[in-house]
Amino acid sequence: MRWIREHTKATAVCAAFALLLILVLVSSQTFGESNILGRSAGTLISTAQRPFAYAAGFLDARLSVFFVSKDLATENAGLKAQISELEQELTAARLSGTDLAELAKLSEVLNYAGLEDAYRLVTADVIGLDESSGFRIFTINVGTENGVAENAVVIDGNGLIGRVLETGERWAKVISIIDETNNVGFQVFRNFEWLGFVCGDGSGGLTGYMLDETASIRDGDRLITSEIGGIYPRGLTIGKVTKVEWDHNSTMKTVQVEPAAYFKSIKKVTVLI
Amino acid sequence: MNKRYAALIFAVAFIVQATVLRYAAVQGQSPNLLLCLAVIFAFLYEKPYGLVLGAVSGVLWDMEFGTVTGVSGISFMAAALSAAWLKQYLNHEFLLPALLGGLLGSVLNSAVFWGLYKLTGAPHTWAYILGIQPVLIGYNLVLTLILQLIFRRGVIRHRKDKDFKGGFREARGFIKL
Is A115 within the bounds of a domain? Predict the structure, then answer.
């Protein structure tokens, strides 16, 4: 007690460390979920962030014209290649127009519901993003008020972004698929029977493994979500395979995947509810 | 510095970190403004602004972007404490000591942050954790230097001041230690 009285500052620092350690231990049991205090703080922070996020987005859109000319040229070349590829695909699709008409009839008969029919789509703005640690979690400006719930799937125009980790009234925390802790079940577009799992590789890409080591997956194969795990609906584009390897340690076929969504400039997303 | 002014600076930094600094990311990493502020405040000021506001902003940051609350609070506190300790031996008016404070704070922050996350079961590999450090630490050092240039003006004391502490003599003493 005497030591405590004589060293009040050191005692205060030790007490603060101990309190924070207890908070870490308690919080690690609930992984990403906040209590009422955390949710209130989230509401307050997200409200304050909104104007800054919009202003930053606006400035970025205006200023990027001056700074990204080199990136723009590379992107332009990539887009040209993509257009050419799409034109070829379009030609192939036109050729199989009769098949498509038959499929449309079949979907009517089977009462098949597409993404727009099965879910209500809510568009959201990204209002906060942490790029200073290895986690890929961001905040969006819609929440329970808009019908967003935990584990709601988040997409953008290119493909799968992630899922909702936690919700507040007018905000939600989204964990992206490029986070190392977020596993996503996939199937290969070329052969729906080839299944596997991917998660973030820590550098903005995805890494994963095949459940069936005999699956002849190859570079360029497109991966879509499977229903394994029960969170993601089937058919959302995850990305394109860039490398296939045989891992001798785990005796599994591993894949490196380039995500379809462009996470570096993520501004708007759509939540499926 | 007034404590309200210090709190306001941290509040603005919090929002800027979450909204604006993402556009300054290099190889997927942006500097940690809150950490740099905690370090530079602990390094420059006698009052424990860096320690207290660093811990509070760290906890709030975890609530907003983390999966385990309190990790950033502890790591920011550890970084601020290291800078406060270093201040006793180095002259805080110069850039090099601030750079040293920033380096120590940044390394300690990463070690505590990832150590705690690994303990709580985060699946990140050590190869990945070490891989992101050079860019992150380099970026943090640049930001620390900028912040030192901004905030040091308020704390420069005259050499003939009887309360003046710090200088090359103390620095030499530190190196001998």
Answer: no
Interface test with B, best of A27, A49, A132, A175 (most B CBs within 10 A): A132
Dist. CA A35–CA A102, nearest whole Å? 52
pLDDT digit string (tens) for chain A, length 273 residues: 777 777 788 888 888 888 888 888 887 776 555 566 666 666 777 676 666 666 666 666 666 655 555 666 677 767 777 776 676 666 556 545 655 566 566 556 555 555 656 778 888 888 877 766 656 788 888 888 888 888 899 988 788 899 998 888 888 888 888 887 788 888 888 888 888 998 887 667 888 888 888 888 888 888 888 878 778 888 888 899 998 888 877 778 889 998 888 776 677 888 988
Q: What is the separation of C-alpha A226 from the centre of its chain, rounded to a whole number of angstroms?
A: 15
* Whether the model pTM is above 0.80: no
Pick from B45, B63, B74: nearest CA to B147: B45
Interface of A with B in 18-57 (CB under 8 A): 20-21, 23-25, 27-28, 31-32, 34, 38, 41-42, 45-46, 48-49, 52-53, 55-56
Pairing between β-strand A160-167 and β-strand A172-176 as defined by DSSP bridges: antiparallel
What's the CATH number of domain B3-23+30-176, 3.30.450.20, 1.10.1760.20, 3.40.50.720, 3.40.605.10? 1.10.1760.20
